[in-house]
C-alpha cells in the first residue's frame, strides 16, 4: 500500500498520484460532470416535458422508468470493455452520449423523447460502468475511495450546473429543448481529449498474459466473464446484487422525483427549485470527499451503515415534513450527502471485489440491477400515487427498503479498504 490515508474533508489525495493518474482522473471526472448534467436534467425538466406531451399527473415517473431501461443495452456494451479494452469503449460511449443528448432536443412526441433518453442512458450508464473500472485499475490502492469520491463530486457538480441553467427554462428559446443542446456540446470536446489516453495498465498486463491464447470474439469473451461472475465468484457477485437492488428501490424515487414534488405539491417556481438544488447540493457535494476518505481509512462498511440510516431520516423528513423551502434545502443537502456516500462505497465494491477479467462486467451488472430496481420503484410509486394522496407519501413509504441493503452489506460483503486489488481477488479465491 502506497501510504496511509487520512480521514476528513480535503481535496488533496490521501496518497500521492503521478501525472498519468491525475490526467486519467481529470478526464474521467469531466465525463462524469457532463453525465451528471444529463441525468439530473431529466428530473428537472420532467414536469415541462410531461405538460408538452400531455402526460397525466402522477404518471411522470413512468417517463424516467422507461428511459432508464437503456441500461439493458448498456450492460452488454460495458461487458465488451473486458475484451476490447476500457479506452475503446469509453470513446464509443462518450460520442454516443453526445449525439443522443443533442437529438433529444428535437423529440416530437413522448415516445420519441423516451427512446432518445433511453439511448442517452445506454451510452451514459456504460460510460459510468467503465469509468469506475478505469479509476480502480489506475489509482494507487490507498486512494481508490477518494478518487471514486471525486467522480461522484464531478457528477454532483454537473447536476448542480443543470439546476443553475434550469432556472432559465422559461427565458431560453425553446425551453427545455435548449437545455439539451447546451448539454451535448461539451461532450464532443471530451471525446477528442480521450484520444490521447492509453489503455489501463492492468488491462494491458492481462492482454500480455493472454497473448498466444486462441482469440475469441468480443461477445464470447464478455459472456465468459459473466459466466465466471455467476459461477466462480457467485458468492460475492450475488451479495453485491442483493445489496444493490433494495438500495436502488428505496432511494430512487426520493432522488429523481424531487423537482416534480417541489413544482406540483410545494408550488415552487424554477428559481426556487434551483436554489434548493444548489444550496443543498453544495453541502451534499462534500459527502463525496469525506465518505471516500473515511471509507479508505475506516472501512467501506461503517460508512455504508451510517449513510443509509441518515439518508432515510433526512429524506423521510423532507417529504413528510412542512413545505418550508429552507428546511427542504437543508434536508436535501443531507440526503445528497448520504446518497453520494453510498454511491462511493457501492461503486468501490463493484470494482474491487472481482479480478481484472471480470471487473468491467461486474461494474456493469451492478449498475444494471441498480437501474432496473430503480425503475421498479418508479412504477410502484405511480401505482401508489392516487391511493396515498400524492407524491410525498408514495415516495416516503419506499425509503425503509434501504435497510434491507444495509443488513445484507454488513453480513455478506467483505471489507476491502486499504487492500490491493490483487489481495482482494486472492481472498476471494481468484487470480487477479
Q: Can you tell me about this structure?
A:
The chain is mainly alpha-helical and 432 residues long. 78% of the residues lie in helices and 0% in strands. It has 19 helices and no strands. The protein has helices at residues 19-53, 60-68, 71-79, 81-84, 86-104, 110-138, 144-166, 176-194, 201-210, 218-231, 234-256, 258-266, 270-298, 300-320, 325-352, 356-387, 391-396, 402-412, 421-427. The radius of gyration is 20 Å and the shape is globular. Mean pLDDT is 79; it is low at 1-9 and 212-218.
What attributes does this structure have?
432 residues, mainly alpha, globular
Major pleated sheet: none
Shape: globular
**Overall pLDDT confidence:** 79
Helix content: over 70%
Order of helical and strand elements:
HHHHHHHHHHHHHHHHHHH
Structural class comes to mainly alpha
Distance between the termini: 16 Å
Q: Given the structure, what is the number of helices?
A: 19
- Whole-angstrom Rg: 20 Å
The amount of beta strand, in percent, is under 5%
